[in-house]
Amino acid sequence: MAPSGVILLLLLLPVAAAGVTPGSCSGCGPLSLPMLAWLMAADAVVSLLIIAVVFVCACPRHRPTLDDKVYINMPGRG
């Protein structure tokens, strides 16, 4: 079951969209090709950065082996 805040947001979304008149913002025209290419490149770089951070944090760290210690109750370890 969805929380009541989400339901309220979904109910108010059409009301907010109806209040916006088309063409009300200045400079909201289509993006130029260089600007669109730059935004796509920036999006790709940020996405790869997020993937790299998740990969580094998720990989198990290599811990040194404990072969120099003597384990009494573990046969084969010393």
TrEMBL record:
GO terms for cellular component: membrane. Its main location: membrane. The chain crosses the membrane at residues 35-59. It is a single-pass type I membrane protein. GO terms for molecular function: phosphatidylinositol 3-kinase binding; signaling receptor binding. It is found in: Membrane. InterPro entries: HCST (IPR009861). GO terms for biological process: positive regulation of phosphatidylinositol 3-kinase/protein kinase B signal transduction; regulation of immune response. Belongs to the DAP10 family. This is Hematopoietic cell signal transducer.
